[in-house]
Amino acid sequence: MTGFFEANREILLFTGLTAVKIAVFLGAVMGFTALLTLAERKVSALMQDRIGPNRASVFGFAFNGLFQPAADGIKMILKEDFMPERAEKLFFTLAPFFALVPALALFAVMPFGDYVMVFGCRVQLQIAELPLGLFFVLALSGLAIYGVILGGWASKSNFALLGAMRGAAQMVSCEVVLGLTLVGLMMIYGSAGLQNMVRSQGGLLFGFLPAWGVVYQPFAFILFLTAAIAENKRGPFDLVEGESEIIGYFMEYSSMRFAAFMFAEFVEIVLVAMLAATLFFGGWQVPYLYETGFLFPGGAQLPLNHYLVSAMQVGAFAAKTVFFSWFLLTVRWTLPRFRFDQLMGLCWKALLPLALLNILITGAVMKLPL
Amino acid sequence: MTLTAAIYLFGGLTALATLLMIFERDPVKAAMLMLAALLSTAGLYLAFSAQLLAALQIILYAGAIMTLFIVAITVTPAAWRDTRTARPAGAVRLKARTLGLAAAAVILAELLKVSAGVKTVTFSPEFSETGTLDLARLLFGRFAFQFELLSLVILAAIVAAVALAAKRKEAQ
Question: Is A356 inside any structural domain?
Answer without folding.
Answer: yes
